[in-house]
Amino acid sequence: DSGEVVGSDFSERMLELARQKAPGVRFEWGNALELPYAAGSFDAATVGFGARNFSDLDRGLREMARVVRPGGRVVVLEITTPQRPPLSWFFGLWFDRIVPLLGRLAGDPDAYSYLPSSVRRFPGPRELAAALARAGLVDVRWVVTAGGIIAIHSGTVPSR
After folding, report:
1. Residue-wise DSSP of 113-147
2. pLDDT per residue over 92-141, tens digit each?
């Protein structure tokens, strides 16, 4: 079988960089809250380290589910806050003290404070699983890996 991979982003600069790194992939501008594709156009839709940037998480997940055919998968890869020591201690120290310090040293404190605050605002694994279910997905599952820092969620678009 053959297939095509389409990458989509809201930022033209991100698309430019992506085109340089992966010339065999079609990269197109798109708004995750209003994807420019027909319902059921894809076998799968994924987002990696970007769902926390959706201005409306539920709407973005519904859009991902909408463009995937029945039986297809939606997968979300995202940073999460570790819950158990010692990694939770290190994570707190890193995000609360070291990353903001690096931002001040680099002369861009806002950029370096955004990542920690966006991760803290983002739902934890159970809450994200519930959001996938609200988006209409079934068989929602997740795994937390990398010592509790990364969560990978998936769900299936039901037969209509």
Report:
1. HHHHHHHHHS--HHHHHHHHHHTT-EEEEEEEEGG
2. 777 777 877 887 888 877 766 766 777 778 899 999 999 999 999 999 99
Note the residue count of the chain. 160
158 preceded by a cis bond (ω within 30 of 0): no
Name the nearest CA neighbour of 145 among 88, 79, 95: 79
Task: Give the predicted TM-score (pTM) of the model.
Answer: 0.86
From the list 116, 93, 90, the residue with the least C-alpha distance to 103 is: 116
Three-state SS for 151? Answer: strand
Is residue 35 within 8 A of residue 44, CB to CB? The reply is no
Closest CA to 29 of 41, 15, 43: 15
Closest by CA position to 75, among listed 159, 158, 151:
151
Element (H, E) at 78: strand 68-79
